[in-house]
Amino acid sequence: MSENGVHTDPAALDELTDAAEHTHSGVGADGAVEGYRPGRTLRLGVELRRQLRRRRTQLVLGFVVLLPFILVLAFEIGESSPNRRSGGFVDLATASAPNFVVLALFVSGTFLLPTIVALFFGDTIASEASWSSLKYLLAIPVPRHRLLRQKAIASGLLSVVALVLLPLVALVAGLIFYGAGDAVSPTGDAIPFGQSLIAIGLSAVYVVIQLAWVAGLALLLSVLTDAPLGAVGGAVLAAILSQILDQITALGTLRNYLPTHYSYGWMDLIATDIDWTNMAAGVLSAVIYATVFALLAARRFATKDITS
């Protein structure tokens, strides 16, 4: 018996001591426990399935599918109004399926599409912090750079699915209600149906790349705050502010440096003679903004004090 009144078995103590001395706990070259593989933590497939099961993902994708049919209904209701024409692509929306796709991208490009991207990326790290699960993910341990990368890739894939799903469903709805036909621009250019499908595909690719700046900013804000709504709202407000400033002609050439200045550069594809200038500038601008925001997010997350 020990001094504290606890019974001890000398033979058992000797056995435990001997077992501990012969226990092999190898250490790898990087200092980690032998057998630990960072690449096996937080697999992309697991994160994607987790995100797809979330109600907000299901609602977003469901609304994207429903939106083209809402637009069709709006046009059907508005047919009885003799003064419904407002000019531009709105008047030509019912001319053919390609024109209807152009309208869907046009009306959603100002607010809906940036919001979708901001929602997926702004919810990455901030949501884990708000649920107090971020510190447990890092304690698995998942390396910080891998955690941020895997969540960003999953958010990017979901954003691409949503952004591509909209024109795809709009094309199907357009074919059902308005039929196949030439894509007609407000300037009178007419593009054959086959060529218009290529233009729609390129437009979707451009929209995805152009909104990369929103993704980068939302990711940065998600790292800076523990409130998902703050990260999402901050990115959306930045997009709205940029659009407002872009309307102020007094700013002159300074507007060219706004991230939303070339948001509708894809509209130049609906022409017989395509001018690639705006699209090239839009891609360059988006890539630069997205890269800067992503690097800042990675640097901040690498040194952030995780308390939740």
UniProtKB/TrEMBL annotation:
The chain crosses the membrane at residues 59-77, 97-121, 153-178, 198-220, 227-245, 276-298. This is ABC transporter permease. Pfam families: ABC2_membrane_4. Keywords: Membrane, Transmembrane, Transmembrane helix.
